[in-house]
Amino acid sequence: MIPSHNIIISGNQWFWDQDGDELYGMYLLSQMNHCFVLSSNDVIHGFFVNSLKTSIDVLPGILNYMDLYFNYSGFYFINCRELCGVNHSSMPLYFVVK
Fold first, then answer.
1. What's the predicted TM-score (pTM) here?
2. pLDDT digits (tens, 9 = 90+) for 44-58
3. Is 88 helix (H, G, I), strand (E, B) or coil?
4. Ramachandran sector of residue 84 (left: φ over 0; alpha: ψ -120 to 50; beta: rest)
5. What DSSP string runs through 10-62?
6. Phi-psi bin for 20: left (phi > 0), alpha (psi -120 to 50), beta?
7. Phi and psi for 17 in degrees, rounded to 5?
8. Residue 74's pLDDT is what?
9. For the chain, what is the largest distance between any 2 Cα atoms, rounded to a whole number of angstroms?
């Protein structure tokens, strides 16, 4: 069985947060399943992993789940795919996978 852990991330205008702290990047392990639990505190956001070409809507009041398994180490850039307001383009997030 592949080990897994949950990562809870909330979308806000105009940043991502984890446990109430602004989140700009995080380190993850390769060869491990990561379950992202996503919600929004205000408007619709889009959690888009550029290099994997995968996304999921992040909606207020609803928990959405995205499972990602990274085969290789690398740098993965995430941005908001929905036009969530004036500073929409300034809410980047990245994962460094080792």
1. 0.88
2. 999 999 999 999 999
3. helix
4. alpha
5. EEETTEEEETTEEESEEEE-SSSEEEEEEEESSS-EEEEEGGGTEEEEE-BT-
6. left
7. -140, 155
8. 96
9. 44
